[in-house]
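FW: tagging you since you asked about this chain on Friday. Here's the raw sequence from the shared folder, copied in full. Didn't touch anything.
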Amino acid sequence: MTCTIFPSVSLALAELETRISHAQAADPLAPVTILVPSHAAGLDVTRYLGRTLNGGAGSVGVRAFTLKDLATELIADDDAVNGRRPLLPVLRLGAVSRVLLEEPGLFKDVADQPSTARAIAKTAELLDAVPAPADPELPELMQEVLRLHGASKEALGRQWYTDHEAFTLASNKLGTRTVTQRLGTIIGFMLGTENRPAEAIFRASLEAAGMQHLAAAGSAENGVRLLTASDADDEARAVVRLVVERLTTGTPGHRIGIFHSAAQPYAALLTQRLSQAGVTFVGPSAHRLMDSPLARGLLQLLKLDPQDLDTRAILNIHAEGAFSWHEQKLPSSAACERVYANPPAEEDYAGADTSARADYLEKFRIFQAFREALAARISLVQAAASWNDASASLISLLEDFMGPKGVGERPEKTAARNALVEAASDLRHLDLVGPLPRPALLRSVLEDGLASKGRWTGKSGTGVVVGSFADAVARDLDVVFLMGVAEGLAPARTRENPLLPDSARAMLAIGLPTVEERAEANKKQFFAALATGSERFITSPRGDLRGSGSYEVSRWIDRKPEPEDQLRSFAHGIENGAPASDALPPTAQEWRLRRILTAEESTSVLEEEALQHALAATRDRRDGIFSRFNGNLDAYAGIIVDPEKPLSPTRLEEWVTSPFSYFMKHVLKVSILEDVALEVQISPQQRGILVHRVLEDYVRSITKDGLPPSLDRLMELADSAFKDAANPAWLNHVWERNQAMLRQDLTRVLADDQDRFAEGWKYLAEEASFGPEDTDTHPPVELLLDDGTTVRFRGKVDRIDQHSDGSVRVIDYKTGKSKDYDPLAKHPTAEGTRYQLPVYGLFARTLRDNSSDVAAEYWFISKAGGFKKIGYTVTDEVVDQLRADVGLIISALRNGIFPPRPESNRYVNFTTMMGAQELGQQWLKLQNAPELAPYAQLLKAEK
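HL: got it, structure written out here
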């Protein structure tokens, strides 16, 4: 076979036209078969010939094939494949998995791992050409891989045929007269190096049958422009800008090609930048089927234990929009997160109307029903006795829980669902060759099936062509961009297959290319791509988007870029008040930036409302100006807080701690999901709730049931509460130690109470509520403020004791340390930061029989808190101080004062989520703003 190499694809195409004209000179209908490297190249070649052959009349006798397509056509009527189907990848994987389970051999320790079967199945595709028996001198591992490959082929039976078998049969057909006449003149057009032996054999057979070969190899010289950019993102920006310039000068989009060395990160970057520029493009999708929310969600569901469904995973899938329940409409993901974080039994409905409560309960009911139904369906999938049952259950799960939401569904989501149904349907074939389904294998096989399904963007001939270097070979284009031509990307590092190393490849002697040969083939492919187009650009990044490293231009390019072709970064242009380039801005964002950076301050561009808001927000936060961008909502004064709605004292404390956090939680109703399932031991908050529950039940048994004090009963109540509260995620030895510590603390509490009883005290009430108006508890406590208005309080007192002389003491349990409460010894509200004791004392005053004293105290009921008691008698002076401090906070709430005072950064809160350091710097500039002066006493107090 002779191969003629041209410096460009255009010249190779012209020669192809000449040879076809010569072949059809005597008979215009004479058949001509062209072998091309890809379907896209085949389309380009046939379109070119249609424009040029016979004066543009084309030729009906010319057909273009890839090697595989031609082999498939040649064997279509062969008795050897009659009634048989091409082998699906999922079937080979299933057969290998079955053999591994039955006869694992050297792989016995990892036979049940899906990755083992996947690696062997992938290697087996290259071993179909190995004769049996293989060379006995092969390494033991290679012998074992060959054994598994042979056993899996036997398990597959005769119902399926491999690519190797198809190419072998097609090669045998080439010598027949019928096929020779059908194919006519055979021309190979820019065929590359075949990695699979069977393809190489088929190609060799075509060459023996007289195939001519035309090729093209470009050069980095001769007018090729070499550009470098700061990183891959700026590289994509620059290329898209150049594409837009060519489009504006009249070059059709389908005559422009952009090809990259690596899908990551170039495919996604090009998709983003071309879409922003409004440029239609065609090529492999940057987003695989595996990347779609539906596919990710389905695979995640198959990882779950239906007996203990991970609600966090369900919420994550729901947040991506993958769920659509056929039974009834599912609440939004945000609503489901709220009912998960705050189930109705724990929700505080004080002050809420009954319709809001009913709505919340209904959302909780629907979400619970959805979880139960989903768990049952997942259980059905995982318990499938056959692959046919598993396939049917998967399809049913998709239709019932991830079905279409309506006629307005996006086409790409519909396409993803159809592809998932197709992949699930393919699983039924595994009943013929695979082991019985089990959850891990089912997930692995489905994942492989999804990974094998490519996705496509656009329609051929309608936009700019996008793809890899391989997609550029043999393309008929005018302008070509080759991106990512840098060391580490082109050439990329080529690794040996540990199951089929180069040493074993040489011993097998079936033509498997080595690492060195594959690297050389990649280089030839690049220069074949470089032969495409009359205007060519090579681009290379100077830096790495994902790290601090740098790139050098590929070793394949033996020249350096010109100084003017070392492009400055997009960010550099913005920071220096000038566009990054004088070229045409391709996107709306760049147009706006260009206009702003080149405009005079008096022009209308700077008067755009959105821009003015952004500038004002930046200025106010930078300069410490108290505006609506820093929590000044005085424009809404009087309507943010309902004066008739009772407030809890802890709400007042939250405003002092962080007015902004108060605004987020209690005005906008934004909550942070704190997932206890992630913790390995009981949290301080859970510890407090648990101790409160035990003591509440114990005191109630005395006040309501009339039982005498008893340490045994207290321990029984504790054990019952421990059992109910236990979390499977907690470490057992830590939980056991925590229980022992809690028992010790409770024992000490009971001992201290015995001492109180000896002094004349007794339990009066436990968990006494005041304020909720839709219950039979005590009414709200009212406090007349100095401005003549009244504030109403609600709350729940942990315990109320009464002395024999009629005096009353309210007790609030604390299970943490006492240090933060020490200031109460000097000031009844700790300089305006603590309000529970005086408000609870105000409530207790309504319960006393006479003018007896009322005391309020925090009792730190743990070893960590030293069982310390901090409190005081609630006198008129205490109430006056409460009135003054509360008056300031109520004034702030009514006037819309919510500055971003930072919270502690020791736990997750709005401060840490927004950036504690940045928020702290903003507060340092803002805290002395004149508008905050009336509240400085509270806002500058120690938290």
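FW: The first helix runs from residue 9 to 23.
HL: agreed, and The chain has a mean pLDDT of 88.
FW: great, closing this out.
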